[in-house]
Amino acid sequence: MTEIPMDYRIGDNAYLAAGKQEGIETLVNRFYDLMDSRTDASSLRQLHPDSLDRARQRLVWFLSGWLGGPALYQQNVGNQSLAMSHAQVAVTRDSMQAWLDCMSQALQDCGYPQSFHDYLMHRFTTPAHSMLMMAEYQARPTSTTPSFSAV
Ligand code: HEM
């Protein structure tokens, strides 16, 4: 089938290209199933609770609004940024790469056009790197506090 050129940045084009709610649910389920089964994603999986139900639901809500569709995350959770929701997550280079690899494979498995795959991967990479930088910053050795015990 010939691919129809589409500017995914405009309006709800990305939401439509994803297949609206149903498409996003399929994508998110594939993503978490891959995270749950790929051995190279074990460091990422370990950061999550045993049940992935909450993460699945919230990523569906998030992607809906993020792609230009209904703002379900804001409606159901509130105005929480990705930085806030990941502030307590000890993201490592390995787990960040696993997140991106699972998402890349999920997009391919769902049969999206290459242009949509590349567009989304480009968009996911920026917040993923910010989360890593934030986690590395938080994990940095703190400066030595002066001790007065010897005084
Ligand atoms: C950089 C690598 C990433 C790691 C290691 C990571 C890890 C996690 C973890 C551990 C949770 C908590 C799951 C739970 O408690 O059920 C979570 C939640 C979530 N993640 Fe990520 N994540 C990453 C990247 C991303 C990216 C790039 C996005 C979207 C662009 C994203 C979207 C979300 C959303 C929407 C939630 C639910 C937040 C909430 O609690 O309301 N994550 N993530």
From TrEMBL:
Xref: CDD domains: TrHb2_PhHbO-like_O (cd14773)
- Write down the superkingdom of origin: Bacteria
Pfam families for the chain: Bac_globin (PF01152)
Q: Which GO terms describe its molecular function?
A: heme binding; metal ion binding; oxygen binding; oxygen carrier activity
For whether the record's keyword set contains Translocase, the answer is no
Q: Does the keyword Membrane apply?
A: no
- Positions annotated to bind heme: H129
Q: Identify the keywords attached in UniProt to this record, alphabetized.
A: Heme, Iron, Metal-binding, Transport
Q: Which SUPFAM superfamilies match?
A: Globin-like
Which family does the similarity line name? Belongs to the truncated hemoglobin family. Group II subfamily.
Write down what this protein is called.
Group II truncated hemoglobin
Organism in which the protein naturally occurs: Parathalassolituus penaei
Task: Give the organism's phylogenetic lineage.
Answer: Bacteria, Pseudomonadati, Pseudomonadota, Gammaproteobacteria, Oceanospirillales
